[in-house]
Amino acid sequence: MSGLFDLDGRLAVVTGARRGIGRAMAEALAQAGADIIGVSARLRPDDEVAETVRGFGRAFEAHAVDFADRDAVLALGTELAGRAPDILVNNAGTIERAPAAEHPLSWWDRVIEVDLSSQFALTQLVAAPMLERGSGKIIFTASLLSFQGGINVPGYTAAKSGIAGLTRALANEWAGRGVNVNAIAPGYIATDNTAALREDADRSRSILERIPAGRWGHSADLAGAAVFLSSAASDYVSGTILPVDGGWLGR
């Protein structure tokens, strides 16, 4: 049974790999046997994620790319397509918080570019060799706000709702060609993106009261889902948005 989750010999690209959820996913895939190409705006070859991956006996390669820079993303995608990776984890993202009536359009534009448009641009290029050989795994990081509206994050909600739709659209076209496209929707995870919520005592309390598991999630809670959707265990799973939320959506 363990062979279903074995990623030995696979090459995985993980964006947003420097910290938080992306780092946890990269490390989990490496522990399962995959070599990792990590991508993040400020990723260095000697960052902690690189050391951990190499500690599992796997190779790690670092690329520093700003996902708000379309030309840089396209250049990265072209380079990665030449490497023909087996797995692409689209986790890079950003968030800006302000009431919708006051939300600067410059914030909206940047969040949509980083969290949605760049995801499609990169996937389109990296998927080409997957489709040619008839195999590959693509995973997007969606959000609870792919299902709900959120508060004070209109750009982020729009982008993550778009990610859910993009996941389904690509799955419809590519499942029959051997490429599985799915997404993971993290719940309230204790990362930099949720620091403002956790520092607001009233908001943090109201969130915790809604989570049946009774705690904020940890980045490591996403590890199993990432390995599952990257492995042979998910070969007949396509177009799904998998919540990892401590039961939030079930309330």
Automatic annotation (TrEMBL):
Keywords: Oxidoreductase. The keyword rRNA-binding does not apply. PROSITE patterns: ADH_SHORT. InterPro entries: NAD(P)-bd_dom_sf (IPR036291), Sc_DH/Rdtase_CS (IPR020904), SDR_fam (IPR002347). It comes from the Bacteria. The keyword Oxidoreductase applies. GO terms for molecular function: oxidoreductase activity, acting on the CH-OH group of donors, NAD or NADP as acceptor. Belongs to the short-chain dehydrogenases/reductases (SDR) family. This is 2-deoxy-D-gluconate 3-dehydrogenase.
